[in-house]
Amino acid sequence: MSELIQVEQLQQILDTPGLIILDCRADLQDRNSAHALYQQGHISGALQADLESDLSSPHLPGLTGRHPLPSVEQWRQTLARWGIEIGSQVVVYDQGNSMFAARAWWMLKWAGIDRVQVLDGGMTRWRLLGGDCESLVPQPEPSNIQIKPNPDWTISAQALQDRAASTRVLDARALNRYKGEVEPLDAKAGHIPGAMNADFTKNLAADGRFLSPAGLADRFAALPDGPLVCYCGSGVTACHNLLALTQSGRAMPTLYPGSWSEWITDPQRAIGLGIEGTVW
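Above: the chain's sequence. Below: its structure in token form.
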């Protein structure tokens, strides 16, 4: 099954019993905007998956990154509230470029839910192709889901610092942030030493949808096989690269959830500037 679903495909299965749709729209510059976007209209039957309260635990300044993963029990309770079971079919979407939907996609996969897809092009393409929206808030029947997230899918800051030389590290942020020229969101600029830049927006075609699997494979063709860690500013857009790499046929890489915003909480951790290695 593809990690992506097209608008036309979702329109055909919208009335499928048990289908769960999650609206993941958000704004990193305005943490309170998601609820308003959802209230203004969402895909029929969609539940809101808020980046700040559902897909993250509270940010502890000086201790965590901006979007720490929730605890396993917190995540289980959220999934249960949405009525999700291990075998549920789930579709996630956001405004259009899938940066927030990819976070939800990865977290669902991490929990062991395999039948999850990202709506390619998100709400922008849904509306472009005449998709209906509604303001009705569904009230799902809670589930009794139990989860055992895969511990090998994440890495800590210390383990990343002590990584083997063969481990490649990809930074999903824009090149100027990676180089340390600008930093609009975090207190320090730069990147994790040894990381290479892989701007997540390059996974997308001009219409905002993902490149084809062959196109994604071409993008990362020169990336050697072996251990691979992805990070970004706060563990959100890194998931876009995880999705792209998986869609290209590669095995799921490892996520550094705390990402740059956690890395810089320890002044003893080194900071890289400029360009290292290949820019993907």
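The longest helix spans residues 99-110.
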